[in-house]
Amino acid sequence: MSQGWVDEGFGAVADTFAENFSLFPELGAAVSVHAGGRKVVELWDGEAAPGRSWSEETVVPVFSCAKGLVSIVVHRLAQEGRLDLDVPIGTYWPEFVAGGKEEISCRMVLGHRAGIPVLDKKLTFEEIAAWDPVVAAIEEQKPLWEPGTTYEYHGHVFGFVLGEVVRRITGQLPGAYFRTSIGDPFGLRAWIGLPAAEVPALARLEEAEGRPPLPDPEHLLMRIVTMNGALVFPGLDVPHGWNDPELLAMELPGAGAVASATGLAGVYAAAITGIDGSEPLLTSETIGDALREVSSGAGFLGFDAGVRWGSGFLLNSAFRPTLGPRSLGNDGAGGQFAFGDDDYGIAFAYTTNRMLGHGDPRATRLITALRTCLD
């Protein structure tokens, strides 16, 4: 039986959350919803790790949900006048422009159009953890296509490029700046770089049986998601795998966030509505700018034809249905998903430690139930 609570009128979310445990091989999971800056759904159930039940405090790797955290930081810097998303990145990071990257802007990176989804240089785990070797490799990298002409998911490079811009402007790595400017002030359980003190609350990821096979490791898609094999995927119970606290402690701002459902929903609530009376971090104009479609269609590799990207966020689509045209969010490889919608005043997050395959419907079912409550 699920733990937690829902406000009156949100019972359909609770019913669907319970149904997910009977319809799918759920292990542990949580869902959290804010409405108008106030929490209205807080549910959890199942096993976080062998012998340990899921709790409200449980955190789990949420993979590319990290892109939402980074994108909120970037848009807030733009809103403050400290960053222009449409000028060349070389304005802030002069060494970036080498190799034909003179015209690449943060907007191109946010929309996965920069032409640098993967690096030619093969870096070690230790070099990736050190940050600066990745920055040097990005500076040397030549685009795979003329920047701005097509798109492909920029996986980890997304976070390192935007993260270095954040560092050049603020003096802090992106995960540290996120905590300083958003995570700590609102007390949100979401990190890019998990503190050692939070490891006891960490859920253990498990793969579902029957996941479809992945492409060959040298396929461009796998090079994108593994940084040329240095970060194995799914790679759960191997050295430096996604259950390894050493990996999760690194700043991997493209795909390395760790969060609870309530923390992840709180990030979007803080951004779009404020929390418990606070001012929203992002204005309606800033959100509107983030919502303008930048990329859609099949892209460079011909995958994900139904995806629509704004500036750093997935937009409402048949591939990833949310609430409507003012919804923006990001998903994670394990099935996690979080988004905010300022039309409805809703912030939503679902987290899980059972990794299903492409087209995982668990979060979508919860969002469908949420929509019936709002309608």
From TrEMBL:
Its EC number is 3.1.1.103. InterPro entries: Beta-lactam-related (IPR001466), Beta-lactam/transpept-like (IPR012338), Beta-lactamase/esterase (IPR052907). One of its GO terms (molecular function) is hydrolase activity. Pfam families: Beta-lactamase. Keywords: Hydrolase. Gene3D superfamilies: DD-peptidase/beta-lactamase superfamily. Residues 24-365 form the Beta-lactamase-related domain. PANTHER family: BETA-LACTAMASE-RELATED (PTHR43319), BETA-LACTAMASE-RELATED DOMAIN-CONTAINING PROTEIN (PTHR43319:SF3). This is Serine hydrolase domain-containing protein. It comes from Kribbella sp. HUAS MG21.
